[in-house]
Amino acid sequence: MGTPQRRSDTRARPLAGSNDARPTVNRDIAIRLLDGLHRAQNAFYAGGSGTALAQLLTPDITWTVPGDNRIAGNYRGLEEVFGYFRRRRDLADHTFQMKRRDVLVGDGDRLAALTDGFATIRDVDHRWSTVGLYDVIGGQIAACWLLPLDQGAFDEIWSAKP
């Protein structure tokens, strides 16, 4: 047996209930941050510049989208994450919008948000729900793991060929 390898992700957070966890993101802060993120994303998806969106993300952001579709992948850094955002925008012909439904916070700087997405893709209106699990550092989003509530439907929506 070899020596166990430690994960290189320096953003690892204390487990809930550990003595190191600290309440840095309360519900009010989480709602303000996510509402600001969704406003900036919606503006970008409608054709905006993305300047306000970039200010809400850390330079070394990671964004993970599961599935077998045209937007699935692991994106690292602002350039890759914005490439993913542009791909979503283009596939939805600038119609993609998001609306936060609920937020879950605990100790530390990780939060979860239930969010609905809406887009018209190839003249068909689509709606889906996801949970976004976010890491927050210094008031910015440092990581997002997107978790569709219906992975099959999500894959079908985002697999549409141009």
Characterise this structure.
This protein starts with 26 loop residues before the first helix and ends with a helix. It has helices spanning 27-45, 51-55, 77-91, 151-158; strands at residues 57-65, 73-76, 97-105, 110-121, 124-137, 140-148. A 6-stranded mixed β-sheet has the order 2-1-6-5-4-3. A hairpin with a 4-residue loop joins β3 (97-105) and β4 (110-121). It is of the alpha+beta class and 162 residues long. It has a single domain, classed as Nuclear Transport Factor 2, Chain: A, CATH 3.10.450. The protein has 4 helices and 6 strands.
**Individual helix count:** 4
Strand content: 35-45%
Strand order of the largest sheet: 2-1-6-5-4-3
What structural class do you assign from the helix and strand content?
alpha+beta
Give Rg in angstroms: 16 Å
The end-to-end distance, rounded to whole angstroms, is: 49 Å
Helical percent range?
25-40%
Q: Outline the biggest β-sheet.
A: 6 strands, mixed
CATH structural class = Alpha Beta
Principal-axes geometry comes out as: globular
Instruction: Provide the CATH topology.
Output: Nuclear Transport Factor 2, Chain: A
Work out the count of structural domains: 1
What is the H/E order?
HHEEHEEEEH
**Which residue ranges are poorly predicted, with pLDDT under 50 across at least 5 consecutive positions?**
1-19
CATH architecture: Roll
Q: Output mean pLDDT.
A: 88
